[in-house]
Amino acid sequence: MIELDTRLDGHVVSARDARRLAEAPLGLVTVADLLDHLPRRYHQRGELTNLRDLVEGENSTVHAKVVRHESRTARTGRRYDVLTVTDGTAQMTVTYFNPGRSPARRLPPGSIAAFSGKVDRFRGQLQMVNPETQPLDDGTDDDPDRWARALVPIYPASERVTSPVIGRCVQVLLDMLPAELPDPLPADLRARHRLVDLRTAYELAHRPESRGDVERAHRRLKWDEALTLQVILAQRRQEISAMATVARLPTAGGILDAFDGQLPFALTDGQREVGATIQAELARPAPMHRLLQGEVGSGKTVVAVRAMLAVVDAGGQAALLAPTETLATQHYRGIRELLGGFGRAGELDETPPATRVVLVTGSVGAKAKRAALAAAADGSAGLVIGTHALLHEGVAFRDLGLVVIDEQHRFGVEQRDALRARASQPPHVLVMTATPIPRTVAMTVFGDLEVSTLTQLPAGRQPISTFVVDAATHPSWRDRIWGRIRDEVAIGHQAYVVCPRISSVATGRGGEDEDLLDAGGTDAPGGARRAAKAGERQVAGPAEDGSLGGIGVEELLPWLAEGPLAGLRLAALHGRLPADVKDSVMTRFAAGELDVLVATTVIEVGVDVPNATVIAIMDADRFGVSQLHQLRGRVGRGQAAGVCLLHTEIDGDTRATQRLANVAATTDGAELARLDLGQRKEGDVLGASQSGRSRGVRLLELLKDERLILDAREEAGRMVVADPDLTANPALRRRVGVALDDRPVEFLEKG
Ligand code: ADP
Ligand code: MG
After folding, report:
1. Ligand 1 atom 15: the closest Cα is on which residue?
2. Is the pTM of this model over 0.85?
3. Cα(121)–Cα(96) distance, rounded to whole angstroms?
4. For the segment 524-565, what is each residue's pLDDT rounded down to a tens digit?
5. Is 293 in the pocket of ligand 1 (CB under 6 A)?
6. CB 383 within 8 A of CB 312
7. Atom of ligand 1 at shortest distance to CA of 633?
8. Ligand 2 is an ion; residues with CB less than 5 A from it
9. Nearest-CA neighbor of 102 among 89, 87, 90, 113?
10. Hey, is 329 helix, strand or coil?
């Protein structure tokens, strides 16, 4: 009896076929592998037609008897088979040019078969060349009409194994399969959601008689994927909630109350509500794991600071981690300013109740860093701010109660696990992201987190207008970018100019900031770098035809300074600058001592300079939608409206230009996230590599299958509560094991 784990080799298919199926890229070794190797699409045979009624050029199926069988030799020496067939209404010849595999060998005169293919005419005679052929000799339950209507599965194939060979192996396998397979979806669940059982699903997927069959199979198999994923996440949530940590109880009259009392603005309703939720969770003895989503500029930092102060009030410490040093430094400054005297314990202008805020990054001098580390270790620093490196460098805390991770939709499950593993009493965790994540993605990628969303922007936020500067079609528009920047600077505002790379001359790495964990990355589908072309560019500034395509910060800045932006105060900011230079540039820009910052995506996240009103993004086509949206969020943060100029040298209607049009059309981040996701493969979203076999998510579409994913989440939650280790459902347990094994949590990981 064969089972799902049975090896194909020796049991199901010949040793030769088994070897070929097992080879890369297919990697099909077991019965389950082959059954899960689903058709990429299905071919519909032509309609069953009388020979007399055949129309040249059409795909048709005929049911006919062989009256003559000849083997011929072409002038080239090649052999081929020619059948003459009839159905009583007319005659046709059928030619097979691949004598080795020719079905003609099984069709002696007198036999009956169905032939399906394109009809043509050769020397006045109807013919089909290499048609699909189905011998129907025994005539019992073989029904040519059914065969004609059936869909032919087309499998993902390799050079050595064609789709028909795979199809043949699958058919053999299906015939051998027991009538029932251990089913990961319990019968009651299947009944609730009207799903076919696993055995039937495979039958319908590999031997469909209609599109409806395929749909039923897919819906069922998607459930397997969704449920597996959601069970993993439910187990994780359960493990987390079983952990014990220190409850951080709210304290009246502490530093949080003092801070609230001197805030220069009123909190939005959203900030207040999320704040209350967080405080209630901090007060419980199980670690909080919450994702705070909020549109760019929605004021997440204040929410985080209030959570941190609540922990300080309860006697603990809080760490704030940013993806870049620039951002960590900015947070340090911003938070110290926001706290005023309450953040200056031990300094002259301390206002009790006070705590200390320290910064731990590479850009901090050795002496200051030692002091900061000591303050973290002895507990005198209530707030410790740094980059993610803080986690890996083993910074010691006296009593770390809360970790806030800012702007990190890329902070994966694994890192969160590492964080929990650090302390004997795992800290509460708050992850913040401005990249709006559609609900189903949040639920899949961040399924172990509870989600809060700040939907409101603080009152008085200014609108941002976005324009695509299509320089390929309108070369003169390039100058308008610089004109617009000059206009804004003339009325006292500031500007960003963003390039996708540091330098177009240097070869080697692309140019995103080193400490931006994953900048660019899969986010920019159009981002193939024109390295070769760039390498040829020797002159700084535009190409001969005026094109600015491929230009980097190091070329653009001097050209702007001597040309279009002469007389303005410009500076560069990118990841290859020494930390202290980056730091002083950011400080000077924030203080209004610089007019224009020519930067890479180091400014993508979090940088907050309200006086900056215009951002020009060069070669915007190389960025992904969410990056563009993030970058655009750098302006419109103050009193004046923002302008975002998306420069591109790309011509015509491509996916990249479509992305730019989308970004220009709406500033609603959630809408953009949907548009963006709609253009991407699910694998990219979940971080699954496209190569090799991945048992993770293949059929499931995160946008279209929202209902299904929600249902699966609910079922998974119930299941895991009732039976955490799935002892009652070995089939599902096995799938979960395989999914975890195949790609250790990685397929859940990245946004
Ligand atoms: P993000 O959510 O993008 O991280 P920030 O936390 O950086 O946004 O907030 C953006 C700006 O809005 C900051 O200058 C902050 O001080 C300000 N801000 C935050 N909350 C409010 C509020 N309720 N009213 C007015 N301004 C606010
Ligand atoms: Mg922020």
Report:
1. 299
2. no
3. 15
4. 333 333 333 444 444 468 888 889 999 999 999 999 999 999
5. no
6. yes
7. 3
8. 606
9. 113
10. helix
